[in-house]
Amino acid sequence: MSEKLMPMLRSMRLRTLPLSLAGVILGLGLAARYHTTPIAVIVTTLLTATLLQILSNLSNELGDYLSGTDTDERTGPAYSLQAGTLSPADLRTTIAVTAVLCCLSGTAMIWLSFGTLLCTEAVVLLMLGAAAVWAAIRYTLGRNPYGYRGFGDLFVFLFFGLASVGGAYFVAAHCIIWPVLLAAAAIGLFSIGVLNTNNIRDMETDAGTRVTIPLKIGLRNARIYQTALIGGGWVFLVLFLLCDFDWWHWLVLVTLPLYALHLRGVWRYTGRQLDKMLPLLVMTTFLLSCILSLTYII
Fold it and tell me: CB of 75 within 8 A of CB of 275?
């Protein structure tokens, strides 16, 4: 069992976790300005987001492996199935366990927040949680996965943006205000940017097994699309900041040069060289969320 620990951690792709936590941290931070959230709710909210991301990563690796997308020619990092250090059965078992943990953590989060699972708000959140588990698994796994049909961008926007920020805010505040959706849209577009960068990097190896936006529109237009995603994210963010003007909130501008550096790399690099632009965008979005949250909490 111990010899499988490191391969399993590699398959969990822990470097992606800051992106899934970014929206939740922002939602909780925005709610903290006017609402007091029990620490148990905060912990279970962060845990649920982490488990959902891990579930998505594990399912993505298994789906790509079974479809033949992950081969020795793949330009991204080699994962455990591709390297032969884990078997499909190992990953299926881990996916099942992680899915159960997601459900338990999400249910605990809702119960701790609302004190019941029977009110309308709790039922809606339970349904949203079930949809999130389904989406995490079905991105590249199962029959006709939506990630292979070019719908990944839409689902990333919905779950990494609107559901992540808006859902965390609702769990903490038991209500939702429309400016929060502007912040959620910003995080959603930045998150699509991560997926699009990944898809640009893997254009050659993806061509025979799946449909992605870059494959549909070509490399140059995919780079233009990436620029529009980052620029659009900042437009939504500025609109959000103008809704509740406070000079402290504009501290998030310190992350703008990092987004510019990312776009420079997207226009400059291809293939394996582009891989370093992924953690840059992930960590920059995570940093932005943390800074903005702190300005609301303090």
Answer: yes
What is the maximum span of the chain, computed from C-alpha positions, in angstroms? 54
Please give the Cα distance from 51 to 34 (Å, whole number).
Answer: 28
- Structure token pair of residue 154: 């839409």
Residue 193 near residue 284, CB atoms below 8 Å: no
Task: Give the tens place of pLDDT for each residue, 216-246.
Answer: 999 999 999 999 999 999 999 999 999 987 8
Q: In the structure encoding, which two tokens stand for residue 131, read together? A: 């949809």
Picking from 182, 190, 192, 194, the residue whose alpha carbon sits closest to that of residue 249 is 182
Structure tokens at 212: 């992605």
Q: At what angle do helices 277-297 and 17-31 cross, to 10 degrees?
A: 20
Per domain, the residue ranges of the chain are 2-297
Please, what sign has the CA dihedral across residues 175, 180, 181, 184?
A: negative
Pairwise CA distance, residues 135 & 129, whole Å:
10
> pTM for this one?
0.93
Indicate if the pLDDT at residue 2 is higher than 70: no
